[in-house]
Amino acid sequence: MTIDLRRFFQVTNPSKTLAIENLEDQKYYIDFSSVRGGKIIAELKDKITFFSPDEPTCMLFTGHIGCGKSTELLRLKVELEKEGFHVVYFESSEDLEMADVDTADVLLAIARRVSQSLNLIDININPNRVSKLKQLLQGAVDILNSDLQSVKFKIPGLGDVGISSQDENHEEQLSLAFGIGEITTRIKSDVKLRHKLNQYLGPQKNQLVEAINQELLQPAIAALKTIGKKGLVVVVDNLDRVDSRAKAWGRPQQEYLFIDQSEYLTKLDCHLVYTMPLALMFSDGYGNLTQRFPEDPKVLPMVPVQLKDGSDDTTGMMLLQQMVLARAFPEVKPQERLNKITEIFDEPASLYRLCRISGGHVRDLLRLLNNWIQKQRDLPLSRQTLETLIRSRCNEMTMQISDDEWELLRQVKERKKVGGDREYQKLIHSRLVFEYRDRHGESWFDINPIIAQATELKSK
């Protein structure tokens, strides 16, 4: 079997999320749950489908950016749909400016995406039921227009808001999604307008939540049940990418959104799953966060490449190697793939080195592999090229590390623990430190193997 190098390059794209409902993507999927401390997606699913199918739930899902959360959430979507739920999955970064997010932005994005999704399956909300939401959106448009000096902001053919009580139901549903979309698109690219909108909606967040619940979510769930669906689930991905910078009054944005504003995120009358920044697990406010959300956050840790004592985690390494081999030989059985390693790599040790140096971070592994293919443009891939890429990546990562951070990294390397202060949060956010969990669910930490050989970590 001749490997198509271009195809191999394309399927190792680290930016591509596997969509499990896609039959082709299923061939590339590797289940890491056995080495990640438990079947986390199964727990999220069971909470919705078994324990609380008819009551709203709200759960947080976290882990290092790039560790595979989106792939797992898309798998959750498929599993929930098999159980009869209507699932609205979206990447919040497409709707929000992640450097400046407020609660109203998130609520509007959810309302828009739910409305769009219902329209696609021809479920229509009675236009007479959206009066409060229409009023709030009309006020938002008036606020935005008050700041424009030339062309006024309107939604063509559907009035200033995109909602008309004279429209047919189908047009009403389309216009609601379109109207909110026009507002969120406008404010995403204009910080001044975004702040004006949040000044307007900020004092009315309770009214906004109430309007979304009464005029959109509750009638939507009722309509879904008439066609045999068991309920509505909204999965808000990429909210873990909210920037850590402080708001104007000094409160870190992540803590403001997930702790101070948690009451609004949890009050929507449907099943909700939000991704949350991993750094919040180590903040001083984590205790408050767990008190304000009904469930403790579910954590997706790294795929372990070694045990806490430094010895190899053979199962984790085996699964990572299968992830790489599946991209080259998706039609070949797992055991048979092992006989084909030298069709891709100059020796098995090169594949081992790739998996070990990734630290079990799925996206980092694929990025290294993808760059390796691109740089060499030939098979088998040579160890020498990989080592060049590793040195280059190590240099990039270490350039920004301060002396104080090097000291913290040395402590993590020795103790396998992190503290709760902001310096440790930065190390985790920057992927300089990874979290792992053993078979019993106990967590421990280690430095990113890419920087493990840096001279600064060997000094006293």
How would you sum up the major sheet?
5 strands, parallel
Radius of gyration: 24 Å
Number of distinct helices: 19
Overall mean pLDDT stands at 89
Beta-strand content estimate: 5-15%
Overall number of strands = 7
Intertermini distance: 52 Å
Shape: globular
In sequence order, what are the helices and strands, one letter per element?
Answer: HHHEHEHHHHHEHHEHEHHHHHHHEE
* Residue runs with pLDDT of under 50 for 5 or more positions: 149-153, 155-174
Q: Which structural class matches the secondary elements?
A: alpha/beta
The helicity comes to 40-55%
Strand order of the largest sheet: 2-3-4-1-5
Write structural notes for this entry.
This protein is of the alpha/beta class and 460 residues long. Helices cover 48% and strands 8% of the residues. It has helices spanning 5-11, 23-26, 40-51, 69-82, 103-120, 131-145, 169-188, 191-201, 205-226, 253-260, 262-265, 286-292, 314-328, 334-337, 348-357, 362-376, 383-398, 403-415, 422-429, and strands at residues 58-63, 85-91, 231-237, 271-276, 298-300, 433-437, 443-447. Strands 2-3-4-1-5 form a five-stranded parallel beta sheet, with helices on both faces. The protein has a two-stranded antiparallel ribbon with strand order 6-7. A hairpin with a 5-residue loop joins strand 6 and strand 7 (443-447). Helix 5 (103-120) packs antiparallel against helix 7 (169-188). The termini are far apart.
Topology:
Blueprint lengths: L4 H7 L11 H4 L13 H12 L6 E6 L5 H14 L2 E7 L11 H18 L10 H15 L23 H20 L2 H11 L3 H22 L4 E7 L15 H8 L1 H4 L5 E6 L9 H7 L5 E3 L13 H15 L5 H4 L10 H10 L4 H15 L6 H16 L4 H13 L6 H8 L3 E5 L5 E5 L13
Parallel strand pairs: 1-4, 1-5, 2-3, 3-4
Antiparallel strand pairs: 6-7
Helix pairs in contact: 1-16, 3-4, 5-7, 5-9, 6-7, 6-8, 6-9, 13-15, 16-17
